[in-house]
Amino acid sequence: MIKKNVLSLVLLGVVGMGVAGTGHAAPDGMSAPIRVAAADAGQASAVSAVGVVEQIRPEQGKVKISHEAIPALGWPSMTMFFRVKDKAVLEGIAAGDKIRFELEKGATGLEITRMEKMAK
Ligand SMILES: [Cu+2]
After folding, report:
1. CA–centroid distance, residue 17 to ligand 1 (Å)
2. What's the pLDDT score for residue 42?
3. How far apart are alpha carbons 5 and 27 in whole angstroms?
4. Dist CA 44 CA 27 (whole Å)
5. Distance 47 CA to ligand 1 centre (A)
6. 8 Å CB contact between 99 and 115
7. pTM metric for this prediction
8. 25 alpha carbon – ligand 1 mean position (Å)
9. What is the pLDDT of residues 18-41, one digit of tens each?
10. Mean pLDDT in the chain?
């Protein structure tokens, strides 16, 4: 079980960060190497996280989020761009919103499949 989790995390890391380039090499100094430690990705393919929307680029289907740590991925908190699976995910969302969102591995790496506002 542990081995399987580590393997899937490594794959997720390579595919999600390497190919898609969702921003982990980026600005706020989080050169985030793939962390395989105490994470438990389990068998669920969707990962839930919480953050604050910083910027939305609807035409590109991208959203910049300051997210809290995501233990299931072994990620620390950071600010980065995510791709949304469908632009409809961004409807009703504005910069400054505190959100809960779900990430799933799609064709181009990790994508946000759901996003909902939380009380501030
Ligand atoms: Cu991140």
Report:
1. 9
2. 44
3. 29
4. 30
5. 12
6. yes
7. 0.65
8. 10
9. 444 444 544 444 544 444 433 444
10. 77
> Which residue in this structure is represented by tokens 């090499």?
25
* Residue 92 CA, ligand 1 centroid: distance in Å: 23
Angstrom distance (rounded) from CA 44 to CA 41: 7
User: How many residues are given for the chain?
Assistant: 120
Distance 80 CA to ligand 1 centre (A): 5
CA of 67 to the centre of ligand 1 (A): 7
pLDDT at 91 exceeding the cut of 70? yes
What is the Cα–Cα distance from 85 to 21, expressed in whole angstroms? 15
In this structure, are residues 66 and 52 in contact, taking their beta carbons and an 8 Å threshold? yes
Whether the per-residue pLDDT at 84 is higher than 90: the answer is yes
45 CA from centroid of ligand 1 (Å): 17
- pLDDT of residue 62 exceeding 90, the answer is yes
d(CA 49, CA 69): 8
